[in-house]
Write a structure and sequence with these properties.
Structural class: mainly alpha
Number of helices: 7
Distance between the termini: 25 Å
Number of domains: 1
Largest sheet: 2 strands, antiparallel
CATH architecture: Orthogonal Bundle
CATH class: Mainly Alpha
Radius of gyration: 14 Å
Strand order of the largest sheet: 1-2
CATH topology: Arc Repressor Mutant, subunit A
Shape: globular
CATH superfamily: Winged helix-like DNA-binding domain superfamily/Winged helix DNA-binding domain
Helix content: 40-55%
């Protein structure tokens, strides 16, 4: 499991440019909607449309961007379901699952 987010990922984001663990964590999961997406995925794999329905108010383009950013940060992964479903679902990676106890404490 990777322990650091790629430089490429952080170059394409706003960052606090501080090297303490809290600032670094906010760089990765501090964007609006990110924690709510993680919350939805804590219940299990979700299709894109399931996430949209579970997050009323998030725009399609913003959801797509957050999912892409979270994939780049190795918090979620996208998996293709076998036929007959043949759709894609998002799921938490091991790194994403490690956030669950912290989120539950919030």
């Amino acid at each position: 499991m990777p322990t650091a987010v790629s430089d490429h990922y952080l170059m394409n984001k706003r960052t606090y440019n501080q090297f303490c663990p809290l600032a670094y964590s906010l760089d990765v999961i501090g964007d609006r909607w990110t924690l709510l997406i993680i919350r939805e995925l804590m219940f299990g794999p979700r299709r894109y449309t399931d996430l949209q329905q579970g997050l009323p108010g998030i725009g399609t383009n913003l959801l797509a961007k957050r999912l892409k950013d979270m994939e780049a940060a190795d918090i979620i992964s996208q998996q293709k379901l076998p036929p007959p479903a043949a759709s894609h679902v998002y799921t938490l990676t091991e790194r994403g699952k490690s956030l669950q106890p912290i989120i539950m404490q919030l």
